[in-house]
Amino acid sequence: MGVNTKYIIDINNISIPEINIVMTLFGLFLVVVGIKSWGGGDDDESEDYSNTAGAKLIKQFWKVSDNYDGDQFFTVQNNVKMATPLLVVVAVIEFTDVLFAVDSIPAIFAISKDPFILYTSNIFAILGLRALYFLLSNFIHMFSKLPYGLAVILTFIGVKMLISPWFHISSPVSLGVVGGVLVLSVIASLIFPENKRSGEES
Fold first, then answer.
1. What is the pLDDT of residues 71-119, one digit of tens each?
2. 7 — phi, psi (to 5°)?
3. CB 90 within 8 A of CB 52
């Protein structure tokens, strides 16, 4: 019986791209975070942070006093060494920094794999963003559409990491998309401002 060679596939000539499992997991994580950020809504200013991971860690090892003791992290009450609420506040802030790092580390991997860029970008982010928070917090109400832009950016970077074994998006294109989305979200916020006061008065 003759064999129709037209339908024979040479498996040795098929190039299967090498998939980086870590980068794929990071990409899936960013896509999920981006989608949740889009539909997350506004944060509740009255949110209780006493049950966050940082607070639970402190409460697991020490009893927490009800009152502050100046700038002390620990105090003694009834001959019992207790943590002050100030230590809980610091723990909550530091755990928040870790959560932000979980987003930023895979995101920077999608832009560049240069160790110098990776280290310096995260160092400057840690040193600068917290200091800039008090300046930006006074103007954040002017950029009501910025969370949607950030959600698009996270999703885009996650998709880029997922498709990288098959399709490479260059760093200039990635930076252009990120910068363009940020600019568009800021412009949209200025053109269509969100008036919360009118909603509260009604």
1. 888 888 888 888 888 888 888 887 877 776 666 666 676 666 777 877 7
2. -105, 5
3. no
